[in-house]
Amino acid sequence: MSATAAPQTCPDPHEPDPPDDAKLRQLEKSLVVALVTATPDAVRAGSADQHVRDYVDYLHELRCPPEHVVIRVKRLLLRATRGMSDAKEAAALCEAMVLRAIEIYFGQR
Predict the structure, then answer these.
(1) pLDDT at position 35, please?
(2) CB within 8 A of 8, min separation 6: which ones?
(3) Cα 80 to Cα 66: distance, rounded to the nearest angstrom
(4) For the packed helices 22-37 and 49-61, what is the interaxial angle rounded to 10 degrees?
(5) What's the Cα-to-Cα distance from 48 to each of 6, 14, 58, 63, rounded to whole Å?
(6) pLDDT, tens digit, for every residue of 10-66?
(7) Distance in angstroms (rounded) separating the CA atoms of residues 64 and 78
(8) pTM of the model as a whole
(9) Which of 60, 22, 42 shows the shortest CA–CA distance to 96?
(10) 27, 67, 68, 93: least surrounded by Cβ within 10 Å?
(11) Which of 43-46's residues contact partners 24+ apart within 8 Å by CB, and which partners?
């Protein structure tokens, strides 16, 4: 019996994640954990960059358009910053991470 392969097309960012794409779920979990366990300054300094890069690169491999990547990254950021006490800090962190994801998507590494 073989393992179920990941989908070859971009999953709709407005729908639940495909149940057969374990890699996508693992990348999302790793990114959220990296964001939750690091300080905002550390994240801005690049502590989560590899997790963002892995996630964005995978979505790019699935041929997700940039707007879908932004939606998915924002959704993860909302989960990661939900417990932050400073709303302005959470918003600034989200903005910085979305910009970083866009840079990675378009190859400005």
Answers:
(1) 83
(2) 62
(3) 21
(4) 160
(5) 24, 24, 16, 23
(6) 999 998 888 889 999 999 999 999 888 877 778 778 888 899 999 999 999 999 999
(7) 20
(8) 0.83
(9) 42
(10) 67
(11) 43/93, 43/96, 43/97, 44/93, 44/96
Scored b (16 or more CB within 10 A) or e, 50-86 reads ebbbbbbebbbebebeeebbbebbeebbeebbeebee
Residue type, 30: S
What lies within 8 Å, CB to CB, of 63 at 6+ separation is: 9, 10
Residue 7: both structure tokens together: 């989908």
Tens of pLDDT, residues 77-104:
988 888 888 888 888 888 888 988 999 9
38: nearest Cα among 26, 28, 51, 54: 51
